[in-house]
Amino acid sequence: MSEQRPWHRLFGLCWTDFCDGSAVEVNPEKDLSVKQQFVDLLLTQQGSVPLPQPLPDGFEDLGKYNVVTFKSHQEALDGWALCEAVSHYVNTRKQCSPSLKSLLPESDFRLYAVCVRFPHNLAQQVTLTRICEGVYEVPLVTQRIRIIVVQELPQEEQNALLLLFSARQEQIQYGREHYKPRTTEMTTLFYELLGTYIEDPTVSEALKEFARETLEKMIKDAMQSQAPAVSEAREKWLKDVPPEKRLEGLSPEERLQGLSPEERLRGLSPEELRAALEEVQRRLQTNGPSAKPE
After folding, report:
1. Domain regions of the chain by residue span
2. How many Cα atoms occupy the beta-carbon half-sphere of 128 within 13 Å?
């Protein structure tokens, strides 16, 4: 099921950052068939190099091949979604095995379903066994599906990545403050995540305002730190910020920093130019011609 908002793509890209430098290969939106059928995330253990940080709750026991289905706050995790997850697992096992007559052992595989909201309808269809706070399991014939409910996860360091995808302000804020990026691309992802919340008509106005304020603060911090370049995503969201908001909190000197004299005068009316000239002449008379302009 496609979405108007890029939650699934962002979910996969954040996992790419999380596993960077480890033995876990991340394949977002993996195509599993001749007729395109995408699984949201496939995590593959490629060696023994450990992950640099603890995995989120529910993911502690990674297998060699890990099939992950993701449902944002716009979607429901239901029985059909679990059927799709099982089909992804079957396809993955077939493709990764030497042949259909020599399938890899089922113990090499794990199935995960990450959903932002608790799946109330699914709970009426199947038995959800609670493992710990925010983590459940559904038994299958020869496998099990681990279900992670983002909004029920405790606000702890290992869950910061998943909390970025919550629809609750306090969880998103915790995730942004505690997730430790491993790649430079993650900064752009933060901008895109916040921008996606701003554009999302399904979230509350309070959450949108929080996203706007957080994004504006990040932009201001980047401008004040004189970052060497502003990313494409940052530029995109900067255009949506009202001019008065961009300049809020900056001193007159900071607002004019980097502008040539011609750029500083551009847009002034004849009256304003005349007043500026009179002020320059006054300062020259007071301080002398060798005085530097303030």
Report:
1. 7-183, 184-257, 263-287
2. 23
